[in-house]
């Protein structure tokens, strides 16, 4: 089910069995230019300019082994209607991604306008991100479906592609749904390093 993800993990020397510790995957070399070359863009300017693009905010979760895994992700998009596919991007040095890859499944929890604190809790490295967080199993994969999110998308890992210092993870949608009451708050938006709301 997650053969592509497992092949990637093996290629960088990451553990691919539940018995191995997911806490310290190897960090691959991520240089895009040689040591004697100048980077084509200033990273600070790149972040500043791209920060003008407002996006929604999600939390990607997985059953984990044995504890659930999750991280905050703004780099998420719908990809295909037939077959139903979505995609998210994750840094190649992420310590959470190998745990999701081993599970081969994930749930995209789309956050509402009042869930900025929840997002911040999943944006940090280490610790028990699920402490005090209410969730139940998503119907198809058992991935954590967070309580009171406006919408959720339950997926299996279909493919993983390398994109510079990130991975592009494609998921096949197995189930999805909304919470009309939670959706009334509107979406949580991220713009220029801060959270905001949508106003018509």
TrEMBL record:
Gene3D superfamilies: Electron Transport, Fmn-binding Protein, Chain A. SMART domains: Flavin_Reduct (SM00903). GO terms for molecular function: monooxygenase activity. Keywords: Monooxygenase, Oxidoreductase. SUPFAM superfamilies: FMN-binding split barrel. It comes from the Bacteria. Residues 50-197 form the Flavin reductase like domain. Belongs to the non-flavoprotein flavin reductase family. PANTHER family: FLAVIN REDUCTASE, FLAVIN-DEPENDENT MONOOXYGENASE, REDUCTASE SUBUNIT HSAB. This is Monooxygenase. It comes from Streptomyces kronopolitis.
């Amino acid at each position: 089910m997650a053969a592509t993800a497992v092949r990637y993990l093996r290629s960088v020397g990451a553990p691919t069995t539940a018995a191995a510790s997911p806490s310290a995957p190897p960090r691959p070399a991520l240089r895009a230019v040689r040591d004697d070359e100048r980077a084509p863009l200033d990273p600070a300017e790149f972040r500043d300019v791209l920060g003008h693009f407002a996006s929604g905010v999600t939390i990607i979760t997985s059953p984990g082994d044995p504890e659930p895994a999750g991280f905050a992700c703004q780099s998420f998009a719908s990809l295909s209607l037939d077959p139903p596919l979505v995609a998210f991007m994750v840094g190649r040095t992420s310590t959470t991604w190998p745990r999701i890859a081993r599970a081969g499944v994930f749930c995209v929890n789309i956050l509402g306008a009042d869930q900025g604190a929840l997002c911040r809790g999943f944006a940090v490295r280490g610790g028990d991100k699920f402490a005090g967080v209410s969730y139940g199993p998503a119907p198809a994969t058992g991935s954590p479906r967070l309580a009171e999110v406006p919408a959720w998308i339950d997926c299996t890992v279909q493919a993983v592609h390398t994109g510079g210092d990130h991975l592009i993870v494609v998921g096949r949608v197995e189930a999805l749904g909304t919470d009309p009451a939670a959706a009334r708050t509107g979406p949580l938006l991220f713009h220029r390093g801060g959270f905001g709301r949508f106003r018509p």
